[in-house]
Amino acid sequence: MLAPSRIASAAVPSDSTGMMCETPLDATAPVFNLDATTGYITTPDGNSIYMWGYTASGRGFQMPGPTLCVDSGRTVTVKLHNTLREATSIVFPGQSDVTQQATGAPAAEPAQPELDANGNVVSLVKSAPAKGGDITYTFTAGSPGTYLYSSGTDVTKQREMGLYGALVVRPAGAPKQANNDVSSTFSKEFLLLVSQVDPDWHAAVERNRAFDVTHSTARYFLINGRSMPDTLAPNNAAWLPSQPYTGLIHITADPQGNTPIHKPALIRYANAGPTNYPFHPHGSSQTVVTRDGAALHDATGNDASYGKFLLDVGPGQTVDALENWKMEYDPTNNKIPSDIQLPQLQDQIVGPGTETWFSENPYLGGPKGDVPTGITQNNECGEYYHVAHSHALYQATNYGASFGGMMTLIRIDPPNLYNCAAGDYQ
Amino acid sequence: MSEQTRKPGVSRRGFLLGGAGAATIVAGAYRPHSGASALPELSDAGLAAAGVPDVALAATDGWVAMPGANQPALSPFWPDSMAPPGKNLYVFGFRNVTGLTDAQVAQQRGLAQISAPQLSFKQDQDYRVKLSNLGLSVRPDLVDGHTIHWHGFVNAIPLFDGVPELSISVPIGRSFTYFYRPHDPGTYMYHCHFEDVEHVQMGMTGLLFVSPKQNGTSFTVGSKTFTKFAYNDGDGSTGYDREFGLFLSEIFAEGHYRDAHIQTTDWTDFKASFWCINGRSYPDTVKPNAPYSTTLGYQTGLADGTPPAGSTLPGSLQYQPQSALVTCNAGDRVLLRLANLGYQNHAMTMDNVPMRIVGKDALLLKNGTIAHYIDTNSVEVGPGESRDVLFTAPGFSGGTGTSGNGYDTYLLYDRNLAYADNAGDPASPGGMLTEVRVYNGTLPAQSQPNA
Q1: A132 has a chain B CB within 8 A of its CB
Q2: For residue range A49-100, what is the model confidence (pLDDT) as tens digits?
Q3: What CATH number corresponds to the domain at position B137?
Q4: Judged by CB atoms within 8 Å, which residues 285-314 of A form the interface with B?
Q5: What is the total count of domains within chain B?
Q6: Is residue B254 one of the residues assigned to a domain?
Q7: Residue ranges making up the domain that contains B118
Q8: B447 located within any domain
Q9: Which of A152, A291, B184, B346 has the smallest number of Cβ neighbours within 10 A?
């Protein structure tokens, strides 16, 4: 796979799995400097697609934009520098007291649409002029949850081109809670920012040619700017320099019994696409605790969270869900009935491609069995894998080729980790 | 590989819903090997032991019939010129072959049904589901494997979860027995996960459900006493008199044609042509079920095309044996198990009858003692979601009913009226629409779901 020529390492320290945050220098008065720039992303079938995106100023192009992490209630400043050939801007849905201040303006003013001479809206909010313009936005970080930020200018095209990112608002003083409820405490968090790409449209923009958007058909479906199996690569994978964010969900199983020993993982879904994505994690029911930044309570304040095995996230919507996974069977105390057997290798299809994530053992953490010659076994230590993907199944493809697209894996390590390398998770 | 056969109707273990009548497919008893000792179960040195499956499914291809006149816009893709008489669409699918001999199972090659057989299970019981791959009769060049993925099973073991890259898939001419011990009542789906964008669209998918342990106990709610419930609600609030599984999907006719005619399809070109409930489009949705047997479920008739004895079903629907018609008596409490394994959202509505959503994705909408049931006239079900919906059949209008045939008719359909269509056929409506027929107390108790 060819790497694009404009490469810069994203110098953001973090671990290799889980959500990476763009952390401000001063958490009490966060300031983020973003550039609107152009770049390329790669797809697993060898395609290279021209994109527009927000990057951390001074660093290389990335898609999606940096995940901004702030505490609820803080005043956040975002300075946008625009290198694109047309004006662009940022809207911050779900935040309050949003202001805009163009270069040279004497003071900030409440964010409001730009109008043309006839009073028609030309941008949802004041924009930064093309080819070097700047603008500064401020807002008060809203209710704890996951939000999107994206362009408010020439919106249909600029959002398709990739001008979006996630904004994570944490409860003040409780960074390991999804919302203000203690019951939303999590161990590790994962961001799944979902979107899609029509490569023909991007090629037209790259060549500055007209394109009939009514005939647009998406061919690539992305999680954090990557398609399966690139979604599995770690954060800051060297071979995906423009797509730094992993989509792999990596958790540790709870042992048998009714008392979980781990706090659940938090999955933050954010939909930056133009349609809903019905997301299906195999093997688990995820508990939705927050939607669009609002913790789920009924009218009298009771917990109204609910479990789903399919999270249908609408365009512009976010869903925060907790996930845990509990072991049930083991070879000693709670066996799978003995007449249930793994067929001999010649009676199995392994793959069906050239790799498998199966351990050739039904049990979690059990010793691995052999796979046929020529098949790469990606399984490390008997861990389980479950797939998580859009269930509008053409979206789980790379341009129609299955086991691709808007898909990732949930890796479940055995509870005692005796066989897996110790990692940065419980 | 040898296998024991099971004679239909032999099992008397109590895995039957609602008494003597059988469940949708009886997920019957497992007879333990007498005197068996625990063998090392991970050995691949020997063949699988002859465990007796509760359900045996065969995976293969076949032909079905969609309604509507020949529409130039879909020509030549539909009707398919290669289809046998009376059929017009190529499909992949599962068939229920529980209790058949090896020779009988092999005869089912090329006789797939859509939607896949509706299966029922009981909470906390052990089940063995054996999948055999019979190959594709129209496409002997393809060596596709098949799997079973139980969609929504919590804490699933990947080996039994059916994703080929994370487990194994079944080669042509082989079989594999899946093991399930479901703990969570509710409505689910199952489907093949081998090249699923193709296999699911081609028809290898259907509905299954798990009934709660609370079944058989009784709760009185108002003037009614229930012994069947959708969930372990603890108060009877999900009790029902009759239940109907309604499996929602769409058909992309061009993709089916290409599979039959050895062409490849870019699945990102997906565009629905037909909208189905239980594999049928209106007016076929309201045609009767095929005859029912306790082991084989709704029967599809003989391999030579002869419809089942006593069937009033048109021969064209031979391989779409599951009706989507809802029938009940006035005042009945009816459970609709809605499950969507298509690629589009479907918002189901019933004219003039309010609905109560009690479960989503096999989870009761209740936190502790506080219920969050949703009273509505529109139940949206996204791709891969399920909904458990209760309604009370309204009082009978009198005489011969609004239909003139002894029942009152209410319509149950997808509010997206673009889907009340059969490939642009001017005869309207079509597609994802069925009827709820309310009788004046003359219907006998339901003997199995969808009866």
Answers
A1: no
A2: 999 999 999 899 999 999 999 999 999 999 999 999 999 999 999 999 999 9
A3: 2.60.40.420
A4: 285, 298, 302-310, 312
A5: 1
A6: yes
A7: 55-439
A8: no
A9: A291
